[in-house]
Amino acid sequence: MDYKDFGLVNTKQIFADALVNHYAVPAFNFYNMETLSAIINAARDTHSPVILAVSESALKYMGDDLMRGMIWGLNLKSNENVALHLDHGTSFESCVHAIKLGFSSVMIDGSKLPFDENVNLVRTVTDYAHKYDVSVEAELGALSGIEDENTRGDTSSYTDPNDVVNFVNQTNADSLAIAIGTSHGAYKRKSDDEELRFDILDKIAEQLPEFPLVLHGASTVPARFVSAINDNGGKMPNARGIAPEQLRRAVEKNICKINIDSDLRLGFTAGVRETLSKKPENFNPREYLSAAYENMYATCVDEIKNIMHSAK
Question: Is 87 a catalytic residue?
Answer without folding.
Answer: yes
